Automatic annotation (TrEMBL):
It catalyses: 2 ATP = 3',3'-c-di-AMP + 2 diphosphate. Belongs to the adenylate cyclase family. DacA/CdaA subfamily. It comes from Deinococcus roseus. It comes from the Bacteria. This is Diadenylate cyclase.
Length: 249
């Protein structure tokens, strides 16, 4: 009885650790944190070598740096850590329902705007925090709806220039400036700045960016630094559903 209980406890222990590591990996994938993790690994290897070869001064300095570094990491990665705990505590069913409603509202707005050739740029935040780009625009924190998105991008509306950032079903900010894709890449050279800023943001982060062309009335999706073919509203809805559900699994 005792050994059975111990075995079950060990199994639970292993499962919990595996879940934590997997969630941590999901959070870090495609984020700046992954680069930092590589840096930490190099640091640890150097520290181990210094300790193995008994290099007393290097060992002492690195041990002090590690203590300070630990606190610095908590400060620097505060947004990522907050996201991790939020995700762990959020009920899954409600999350899926919310993602479905958000996708419908976005697809409806985008379809209307494409029909009337109204240019639009909408970035959907996934794991990489987009706070620095949101800070370049006007903070909104508003519930998402098709009429609201259309009002933002309406010609002559004060915030129609630049991009909108959507996070967890809310419009975080509008009028945001995204980084332009490197112009040396010949493939997308002929595109204008709206498309190139969608490409640039999707290249440096895991965001999915929707572009409605004012010139052509087309709908395209930028992801991983690549533009999709022209999409209709149903195709957009399907792609967004897959992408937004996939990020939560
Ligand atoms: N760095 C940027 N970040 C966000 N939005 C931008 C950025 N640069 C340009 N834009 C938006 O793109 C608009 C200009 O689009 P432009 O015509 O140059 O691009 P395009 O890719 O040809 O798009 P369209 O097909 O709609 O004309 C600007 O008015 C602005 O709203």
């Amino acid at each position: 009885m005792f050994s059975w209980l111990t075995g079950a406890k060990d199994l639970l222990d292993i499962l919990l650790v595996a879940t934590l590591i997997y969630q941590g990996y999901l959070l870090l994938e495609n984020t700046r944190a992954l680069n930092v993790l590589r840096g930490i690994l190099i640091f640890v290897v150097v520290w181990l070598l210094a300790s193995y070869f008994k290099l007393a001064t290097v060992d002492y300095l690195l041990s002090k740096a590690a203590t300070v570094g630990l606190f610095a990491m908590v400060v620097v990665f505060q947004p990522e850590l907050r996201q991790l705990f939020e995700r762990l505590g959020r009920p899954r069913g409600r999350e899926d329902q919310q993602a479905g409603a958000v996708v419908n509202e976005i697809a409806r707005a985008v379809e209307h705007m494409a029909e009337r050739s109204i240019g639009a740029l909408i970035a959907l935040e996934r794991r990489t925090p987009l706070g620095e780009y949101a800070a370049s625009g006007v903070k909104l924190d508003a519930m998402i709806s098709a009429p609201f998105l259309e009002a933002i991008f309406a010609r002559n509306a004060p915030l129609h220039d630049g991009g909108v950032i959507v996070k967890d079903g809310r419009v975080v900010a509008a009028g945001c400036v995204f980084p332009l894709q490197n112009q040396q890449d010949g493939v997308y050279k002929r595109y204008g700045t709206r498309h190139r800023s969608a490409l640039g943001l999707s290249e440096g982060t895991d965001a999915v960016v929707i572009v409605v062309s004012e010139e052509r009335g087309s709908i395209r999706l930028a992801q991983n630094g690549r533009l999709s073919q022209d999409l209709n509203a149903n195709e957009l809805r399907d792609k967004l559903r897959a992408l937004l559900y996939e990020v939560k699994s």
